[in-house]
Amino acid sequence: MGRIGVKELGSVRDIRRWLVRFPRAVPVAIFLLTLTVTALSVFAIERVESQRSTAMLRQEALSVASAIERRANSTSSYLRAGAALFATLDQVSEPLFRHFVSELRLDTDYRGAEGIGWAPRVERTEIAAYNRELAKVYAPEVRLRPELAPDRPFAVPVTYLQPRTARNLRAVGFDMYSEPARRDAMAEAARAARPTASGKVILMQEPLGNSPGFLIYMPVFERRGADRQLKGFIYSPFNAQDFLAAAVRLQSPEEVGVSLYDQSVAPGNLLARIAPGRMGGPAVTLRMVVADHPWVLVVERSAERRLSSLSMLTLLFGMLVATLLMVLARLLTQQALEDRATAAWLEEQNSIRNSLTRELNHRVKNTLANVLSLVALTRRRAEDIDSFADSLSGRIRALSATHDLLTLSEWGTTPIRSVIEAELVPYAQDGGQMLEMSGPLVELAPNDALSLGLAIHELATNAAKYGALSAAGGKVRVSWELRPDGRAQVDWRELDGPPVSPQRQRGFGTELIEKIVAHELGHPVDLRFEPGGVRCTLIIPVRTPREFLIRKKSRRPGPAS
Predict the structure, then answer these.
(1) Taking a C-beta distance cutoff of 8 angstroms, is the pair 236, 75 a contact?
(2) CATH code for the domain of 433
(3) Which of 162, 325, 348, 457 is deepest in the core (most CB within 10 A)?
(4) Do residues 54 and 153 both lie within one domain?
(5) Is residue 110 part of a domain?
(6) Does residue 477 fall inside a structural domain?
(7) Which residue from 458, 491, 459 is spatially nearest to 370, judged by alpha carbons?
(8) 113 and 24 in one domain?
(9) Does one domain contain both 111 and 178?
């Protein structure tokens, strides 16, 4: 104690000695040192704020891009449905097309989309008849325009466009194949047989012709013998400005500008722009492919740049030199402790993410292994490409349905009832067939749920083709129970269906259940083809669920007090 007191007294004396010896230099040196520390603190704070702002800007750009893709994907789904329907029809009439669009129940406030249209392929020899039909539906003066060029054998004119508004009627009769951007998009859509967006165009609906837009085309083919012939296009036109405004849902208090370009950033490629103020600040550029067409999204902030509130306070406090020096040190200490806690938290989260990534890789590899097995076995049993595609797609959809359940449960446990219901939903809508399910609440691990879903899919497919679900009055009874050994037993039984032939060959579904599913569940499958109906018993392990570590440690630590 005595020695410490002597040292402290000596330090005080040294300070006084320096103050006496340099009465002006010491205060100036303290002021300059404090000013330097303040300047460095402001620089560090602004750098962190800049990094945070850039990260938030990128996150906002990703949100806008995701919203744009969702809008385009929704339209593509509608167009795919229309193409599948129209491919089965000999002729697409105006009442049928109007009924199809009304059945879609599109949102009336869906901004940006002008509707859904039909444009058939019209050969040169069919133009006169086409004009007569067009006059019957609309008015005598409505005709195909412009006239077909001598070097082109056919036209693709706008024939129906719903909703039938005065704005949309301006486009009726226009040969979209006469315009290069539309023609290129339709040619690419026909080649790839999927929804394809055009480049920047001016829609025929625009009276002034100064508002850019784009279209998404989906080809419709018809079979003529062994070949397929292009029948026409179902498409949807968009006003680019309204489309972007509908997609943007930014909640940031700062001013943010969004620009959408066709293929590359150039003034002539600008599709739409939303700029609430003077832009020119930090920007994030994202390249994206929407409906098989490249777009560029640019999100930027206002050019105005001011110091943050924390920087202003630090600067003001730093100017008070001696009296607020301790407060400044306290702020810097708190900042250091907070940065250290944040770094430790980020390191912990990174470790958790690495563990989850390894877990995800493991699950993906298991799923891909199952798919490869399905492909190999289906190929050996398939007689032609159509049967191969149908069988394989049905089994992959079974895996997908169970994957949806696992996603909803965040890849935790899934009830047996939910797995069975997901696979039997397509067969439960017919009142002439009966499905009975009974059993207690038993939850399965993800891999076991996938195997059960695949087995139920195969049993249901077999029942729909040959068994109880193929005839009126047929029943399928599915029951399950928890056995004393901790495993779940699932019993499938078909009743009141067609008699089962004892000489029936065992197909791929049987092989899949008895080999792949049994291997995944770690227990043999008892599958019997009795005269009264198919019976199957599966023994499934019930594993103890465990929670992901990231769900337990999700709170970010606050600053140290």
Answers:
(1) yes
(2) 3.30.565.10
(3) 457
(4) yes
(5) yes
(6) yes
(7) 458
(8) yes
(9) yes
Coil/strand/helix, residue 420: helix
Kindly tell me the sign of the dihedral angle through the C-alpha atoms of 25, 31, 33, 39: negative
Q: Where are the beta strands (DSSP E) in 172-278?
A: 196-197, 201-202, 212-224, 227-239, 256-262, 270-274
Q: Which of 513, 552, 515 is nearest to 535 (CA)?
A: 513
409 and 494 in a single domain? The answer is yes
Both structure tokens of 252: 């940031």
Cα 124 to its chain centre, rounded Å, is 42
For CA atoms 51, 53, 54, 59, give the dihedral sign. Answer: positive
- The label of the residue with tokens 């869906």 reads 110
Instruction: Provide the residue range defining the domain that includes 107.
Output: 19-323
Question: Which is nearest to 258 in space by CA: 242, 238, 278, 273?
Answer: 273
Q: Are residues 158 and 274 in the same domain?
A: yes
- Could you tell me the end-to-end alpha-carbon distance of the chain, in angstroms, rounded to an integer? 30
DSSP 507: -
Distance between CA atoms of 176 and 153, rounded to whole angstroms? Answer: 14
**Computed from CA positions of residues 422, 424, 426, 429, in that sequence, does the dihedral angle turn out positive or negative?**
negative
What angle, 0 to 180 degrees and rounded to 10, lies between the N-to-C axes of helices 325-381 and 309-318? Answer: 150
pLDDT tens, N- to C-terminus, the chain (561 residues): 555 555 555 565 565 555 556 566 666 777 777 777 777 776 777 677 777 777 888 888 888 888 888 888 888 888 998 898 888 888 888 888 888 888 776 654 455 678 899 999 999 999 999 999 998 888 888 899 998 888 888 999 999 998 888 888 999 999 999 999 999 999 999 999 999 999 999 998 887 777 899 999 999 998 877 788 899 999 999 988 888 888 776 444 456 788 899 999 998 899 988 876 666 677 889 999 988 999 999 988 776 666 666 767 776 776 665 555 554 444 434 454 455 567 677 777 676 566 546 545 545 655 665 566 556 556 655 667 876 776 667 656 656 666 666 566 566 678 888 888 877 776 665 444 578 889 998 888 877 877 888 788 788 778 877 888 777 778 889 999 988 888 889 999 988 888 887 666 666 667 777 776 777 777 888 888 888 888 889 888 887 655 444 444 444 444 444
Domain boundary among 267, 300, 323: 323
Longest dimension (CA), the chain: 115
Residue 303 lies in a domain: yes
Q: Are residues 154 and 269 in the same domain?
A: yes
Rounded to whole angstroms, the Cα distance separating 459 from 533 reads 12
